[in-house]
Specification:
With 383 residues, the chain is mainly beta. It has 2 domains: 222 residues, no CATH class; 117 residues, no CATH class. The protein is 7% helix and 42% strand. It contains 3 helices and 31 strands. The relative contact order is 0.22.
């Protein structure tokens, strides 16, 4: 065993030791780090940008309504390694906002704290960065904020959006005005590369008390109540017009966004105090992801709820990540969902469910090369 480093303020008696290590690919390494004085077992994946390997998010199904084990999603993606991702909400979806390969999947039940991967793999964004979605009629310049995406029915004056990812769970209803947009153009960066947009053609516009607008393959349906500002916008659209639909966040170049429920490090500062008594702060198995000052991505899984590994509070998790060199980090789903998988080794941590690895709705993977599903957006055409 190789001595690792002194945890310092976390515990005067802490003696973390690397008990297993492997280089999975250029720029990708794995470490298991134990400390019997806490006691704790932790598992670390370190990803360095600039090598062939890339980061990506994966979902358990092509639409809302599925659960799958992290290991199965990772194998299907041909990944080198993987950890579980965002918290899960019924009936099988990430809880917070989620973007996959530039495609807006959902705004989520809550904004949460986002970790965004840059398309060029040079870094990312970490923090509370709500995604903003807009639709612009190219003929008139009329624009509207799209309040939610595959998430909920419209409130008064709101416009919301649906795509096939909503499946049978999230879709337009009756007593709504809807416009179906089809024939999407290629993806383009926004002018500041703070998100992307596509051009669509209006295929149908209807207000009905008896028939809901259908969401077809490749389409976006914008919908509103039958009266109010949202309905006024929908009714102003006519078949054949072009509509630009865009989403933007605060991270330039970001095409994939996974989110968690808590920021545990902000500019190197541990967010949660040792005195925190909220349920979220207590000792538990943990999964976290963060970025160092030089752009390395650190993914940590922590065993818990056993005599040999008690789990981490958010306070201790923050200190542990900081001593790994992380400056900004997000707490992902923990408890029985905490999982780390490596190609050729399987699940390397010890999930707490009696049935073993827990099925979840999404995961973060390290691919051996470029993401085959990601389209590099074209530069925006300047006026």
């Amino acid at each position: 065993m190789v001595a690792f480093w002194c945890i310092g303020p976390v515990s005067a008696l802490a003696t973390p030791t690397v008990v297993a290590r492997a280089n999975l690919a250029p720029g990708v390494s794995y470490r298991r780090i134990d400390d019997p004085t806490i006691p704790i077992h932790t598992y670390l994946l370190a990803f360095s940008p600039g090598y062939p390997a890339t980061l990506d998010g994966v979902l358990s199904a092509g639409k809302i309504g599925g659960y799958e084990r992290t290991s199965a999603m990772a194998k299907a993606a041909g990944a080198l390694a993987a950890i579980n991702g965002d918290l899960n909400s019924s009936p099988g979806r990430p809880t917070h906002q989620y973007v996959l390969d530039g495609r807006m999947m959902q705004t989520g039940k809550r904004v949460g704290v986002s970790f965004g991967f840059r398309q060029d793999e040079t870094g990312g964004m970490v923090g509370r960065h709500p995604i903003r979605i807009s639709a612009v009629d190219e003929s008139t310049g009329a624009s509207v904020q799209v309040k939610s995406w595959n998430e909920q029915s419209p409130a008064t004056d709101q416009v919301v959006g649906y795509t096939p990812y909503g499946g049978t769970e999230e879709k337009p209803a009756t007593n709504q005005c809807s416009a179906r947009l089809t024939l999407p153009s290629g993806m383009r960066w926004n002018r500041d590369q703070n998100g992307v947009h596509r051009m669509y053609t209006v295929d149908a516009v209807a207000c009905s008390s008896s028939t809901a607008m259908g969401v077809t393959a490749g389409s976006v349906v914008l919908t509103a109540k039958t009266s109010g500002l949202g309905a006024t916008y929908i009714k102003s659209l006519t078949v054949g017009r072009r509509v630009r639909v865009a989403w933007r966040a605060d991270g330039p170049g970001v095409l994939d966004i996974v989110s968690g429920n808590a920021m545990i490090l902000v500019d190197g500062r541990v967010v949660y105090r040792s005195s925190c008594s909220m349920n979220i702060c207590r000792r538990n198995p943990r999964t976290a992801i963060g970025i160092t000052r030089n752009g390395r991505v650190m993914m940590l899984v922590v065993d818990g709820r056993t005599s040999v590994s008690a789990g981490f509070t958010l306070h201790r998790l923050g200190h542990w990540m900081r001593h790994l060199g992380v400056v900004n980090a997000v707490n992902l789903d923990g408890g029985g969902s905490s999982t780390m998988w490596l190609a050729g080794r399987g699940v390397v941590n010890h999930p707490t469910d009696s049935t073993g690895e827990r099925p979840v709705s999404n995961a973060v993977v390290i691919l051996p090369g470029a993401d085959p599903n990601e389209v590099v957006p074209r530069a925006v055409v300047q006026p």
